[in-house]
Write a structure and sequence with these properties.
The chain is of the alpha+beta class. It contains four helices and seven strands; from the N terminus they run αββββαββααβ. The longest helix has 27 residues.
C-alpha cells in the first residue's frame, strides 16, 4: 500500500510539472529566429495568434502540434485558411494536414529531445504543411 501511495504522489508531481511547463509556454509564448506566429480563426470569427516553431523540410514550411493544449490546431482543421507572420512578414497560407510518410520525414528531421518530451508529457505530434495562397 505504501508503494502505491508513493507511485500516485510521484505521478501527481509529474503531472503538475507538465502542467506548469505547458502553462509557462502558453502564457509567455517565447519567440526566436525559428518561430512564427500563426493566426487562426475560430467558429465565432475571432482571430487567435499562437507562436509556433517554423519547420522546413524539402523547401516546404511546416508547423506541428506537439503540446497537449492545441486549440489552435483544432481551429486550423475547421478553417485551414491561416495567416502566418514569419520574419516580420505576414502572408496567407492554407494549412494542410500531411500524410504518414511526409510526417515521418519531417519528424525525423525535427526530432524533439527526450527532455522536451518528458517535460511536455509525451503528447502525440501532428504536422501541418503551410502552402502559400
Amino acid at each position: 500500500m505504501k508503494a502505491f501511495k508513493v507511485i500516485v504522489i510521484l505521478l501527481l508531481v509529474y503531472i503538475g510539472i507538465v502542467a506548469a511547463f505547458e502553462s509557462f509556454l502558453g502564457y509567455f509564448q517565447p519567440q526566436n529566429q525559428r518561430t512564427l506566429i500563426i493566426t487562426t480563426t475560430d467558429a465565432d470569427g475571432t482571430n487567435h495568434d499562437r507562436v509556433l516553431a517554423a519547420l522546413e523540410s524539402n523547401g516546404q514550411l511546416y508547423v506541428s502540434a506537439n503540446h497537449w493544449p492545441r486549440a489552435w490546431y483544432k481551429q486550423v482543421l475547421l478553417n485551414p485558411n491561416v495567416q502566418v507572420t514569419l520574419a516580420s512578414k505576414k502572408s496567407d497560407y492554407d494549412a494542410v494536414p500531411i500524410t504518414d510518410g511526409e510526417a515521418a520525414l519531417v519528424n525525423k528531421e525535427h526530432r524533439h529531445s527526450i527532455g522536451f518530451r518528458i517535460l511536455t508529457g509525451f503528447p502525440p505530434r501532428y504536422f501541418l504543411r503551410l502552402d502559400p495562397r
